[in-house]
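Regression test case RT-17, inverse folding.

Input:
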């Protein structure tokens, strides 16, 4: 059985990533290996998310961003999309009051126009309920695609230039960061992808310019606090140079 994170060797506190982003991959393969339908893997994945968030809090992480449903995931079979939306409904229904009690602030990022109106309402209510919480930040990327996010940002910028509100020469990194879905959220320090693939799959492309990437073959439903600790320990051993030389 996995050791709880608090029993693991302590990583230097200064080197704990403040913001972890996770691509939770491998639910389907996990279910298939057990002869279950894919939805069973997603359900287990939702459970693992709960534990991972607790483990992040225990470790001193402040922000957790999860890739719950990508813009490309709409192309999955109708039944899988509807299973995932149902999971989201019950997550918002059952978990929000407990997240609120734990001081978690929820933010949902992505193209929510495509999300069913009842879920959008749940999201709005959950964000409103938790907006003043300062204990932990859970950011759920839903119907999210980084290129779409950047296109939308460019469209807004172009309109502002056309209207004379800003001039093209004044555009800097902050102008763009402030217009992304993730405005006011710091960039991720560490991005973990489970399930063995080694790519970003259209997740946080602007925000992960200097993020440390960590790929593990562990399937998301098998991901434990110990795996999280291993990722954090590797992060702590890396030297982040942001393009400068080592000192
Ligand atoms: C990728 O695994 C995972 C997803 C597309 C969905 C992730 C969603 C959850 C873990 C559900 C919990 C989220 C909330 C907010 C309720 P995959 O299906 O692509 O796995 P595979 O590569 O093995 O097929």
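Golden output:
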């Amino acid at each position: 059985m996995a050791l709880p994170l608090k029993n693991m060797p302590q990583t230097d506190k200064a080197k704990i990533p403040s913001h972890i982003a996770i691509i939770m991959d491998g639910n389907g393969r996990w279910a298939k290996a057990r002869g279950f339908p894919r939805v069973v893997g997603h359900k287990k994945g939702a459970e693992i998310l709960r534990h991972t968030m607790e483990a992040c809090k225990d470790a001193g992480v402040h922000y957790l961003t999860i890739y719950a449903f990508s813009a490309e995931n709409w192309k999955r079979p109708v039944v899988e999309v509807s299973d995932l939306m149902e999971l989201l409904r019950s997550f918002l229904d059952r978990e929000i009051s407990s997240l609120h009690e734990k001081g978690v602030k929820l933010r949902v990022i992505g193209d929510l126009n495509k999300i069913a109106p009842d879920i959008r309402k749940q999201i709005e209510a959950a964000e409103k309920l938790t907006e003043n919480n300062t204990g932990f930040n859970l950011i759920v990327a839903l119907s999210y695609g980084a290129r779409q996010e950047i296109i939308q940002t460019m469209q807004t910028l172009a309109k502002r230039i056309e209207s004379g509100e800003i001039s093209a020469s004044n555009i800097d990194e902050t102008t763009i960061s402030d217009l992304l879905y993730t405005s006011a959220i710091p960039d991720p320090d560490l991005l973990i992808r489970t399930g063995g693939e080694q790519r970003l799959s259209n997740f946080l492309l602007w925000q992960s310019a200097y993020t440390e990437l960590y790929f593990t073959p562990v399937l998301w439903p098998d991901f434990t606090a110990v795996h999280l600790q291993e990722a954090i320990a590797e992060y702590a051993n890396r030297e982040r140079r942001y393009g400068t030389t080592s000192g």
